[in-house]
Specification:
Layout: H1 3-12, E1 17-21, E2 27-32, E3 38-42
Antiparallel strand pairs: 1-2, 2-3
Length: 44
């Protein structure tokens, strides 16, 4: 799933943490900060 799709899905599901795979298969983590912004973390 693309980053944009993941952000929409995290907002739709009202998640503070959302784990997904990008189109290349890398594991990515979206984390909602205290300010309400989404932060991207790339897993190794």
């Amino acid at each position: 799933m693309t980053l944009e799709e993941a952000i929409k899905e995290a907002h739709f599901r009202d998640r503070d943490v959302f784990v997904f795979r990008d189109p290349k298969g890398k594991v990515m983590v979206l984390h909602r900060t205290r300010e309400g912004k989404m932060e991207l973390i790339e897993a190794p």
